[in-house]
Amino acid sequence: MSNTEKKEDQYTQLARYSVIVADTGDIDAIKKYHPTDATTNPSLLLDAASKPTYKHLVDEAVEYGRKNAKEGDEMRVVMDKLFVNAGTEILKYIPGVISTETDARLSFDVDALIDQAHRLIKFYKENGVEKDRVLIKLASTWEGIVAAGKLESEGIHCNMTLIFGMAQAIGCDQHNATLISPFVGRILDWYKQHTGKDYAPHEDPGVVSVKQIYNYYKSVGSRTIVMGASFRSKGEVLELAGCDKLTIGPKFLEELKSSYDPVERKLVPTKNVDPSKRIKLTEAQFRWLLNEDQMATEKLSEGIRKFAADAIKLELQLEQQFNVKNVKRTNPQKLNDEVEHKVSY
Q1: Cβ burial, residue 287 (10 Å; 0-12/13-18/19+)
Q2: Per-residue pLDDT, 333
Q3: Which of 32-41, 111-120, 133-142 has the lowest mean pLDDT?
């Protein structure tokens, strides 16, 4: 009997080969699609925070900040507490883990990233959530990767985001990151912009990149999980059937639920595992390889800027709605303005 005759939708078929993660902070969407894991970031929470479903979570975070934060530090505490409150709520509806993002503005500061990760884990603990149900999301700069290695040694698991190239993937494996999130759709965006071409799903540069990373990891026996992310079409998702995990937005989750076409597994672990072929990079080697990959360099930089911009928008929204004081940490725009002033003639 065929999959269609069994009335098995593509979501159900895909879930046999890959763990499905909801790429949304919308609790209603998570309730609807029943993913194993979920993830949040400033962009997703910016969209969700104004919805009635989240009002009590925001209220509690603001009140927590007012009572517990040092003067001038309220916004940092409120933002972290809001992310943790949202993650805690989402965990009620999924059996797996929640990924919680660190501040993109700290992407080049190892110590600051580690401090924020500790604070997030502390807040989760206060909410009754153990650290084994949380992944700390870090941008895959060299500093983010080093921070992940230190956190992993403490038993704090990390999701390395904004992965665009092999240098980043090698670095994350080398530092024992729990999971990486290669951004399929953003890679495709770059190539379409620079070549003017359209790509079929099987030749999609983002899909090809994830397959290369997956095959390398499996060939050297890496324990780091590969989670394809940032999709532009259902075709991209299906071309990565068999990837360890796939984080998928509500639009494509709905398309998968609505189709009964057969799903073929495309990624299968190799049986020829040779750990001796595992590559290790020095900081200088990592930076050179990343520098030589124009697409990865540009998309990593752009991704950090966009997440930082959305974090600032969320802070401003909280300031306006709840009169929370601004955070006492380096404001990137202020730093830019100071540098521009000093070098102007």
Answers
A1: middle
A2: 58
A3: 32-41
Largest CA distance in the chain: 77
Reported as a single tens digit per residue, the pLDDT across 188-223 is 999 999 999 999 999 999 999 999 999 999 999 999
pLDDT for 342: 47
Q: Which of 131, 137, 266, 299 is catalytic?
A: 137
User: In angstroms, rounded to a whole number, what is the distance separating the alpha carbons of residues 285 and 128?
Assistant: 42
Question: What is the per-residue pLDDT for 71?
Answer: 85
Q: What class, spelled out in words, does domain 10-343 have in CATH?
A: alpha beta
Find the helix packing angle between 166-174 and 142-153, rounded to 10°: 20
Tokens standing for residue 113: 């990233």
Report the distance separating Cα 8 and Cα 259, nearest Å.
9
pLDDT in tens, 47-63: 777 788 788 998 999 99
265/18 Cα distance (integer angstroms): 9
The yes-or-no answer on residue 137 being catalytic is yes
Q: For 293-313, write each residue's pLDDT tens digit.
A: 999 999 999 999 999 999 999
Task: Specify the long-range contacts of residues 231-235, CB closer than 8 Å, at least 24 apart.
Answer: 231/184, 231/185, 232/184, 232/185, 232/188, 232/189, 232/206, 233/201, 234/10, 234/259, 235/200, 235/201, 235/204
For residue 207, give the amino acid letter: V
- How many angstroms separate the CA atoms of 40 and 274, rounded? 35
Residue type, 286: F
Contacts made by residues 326-334, CB under 8 angstroms, sequence distance 24+: 326/75, 327/72, 327/73, 327/74, 327/75, 327/76, 327/79, 328/72, 328/73, 328/76, 329/76, 329/105, 330/105, 332/105, 332/308
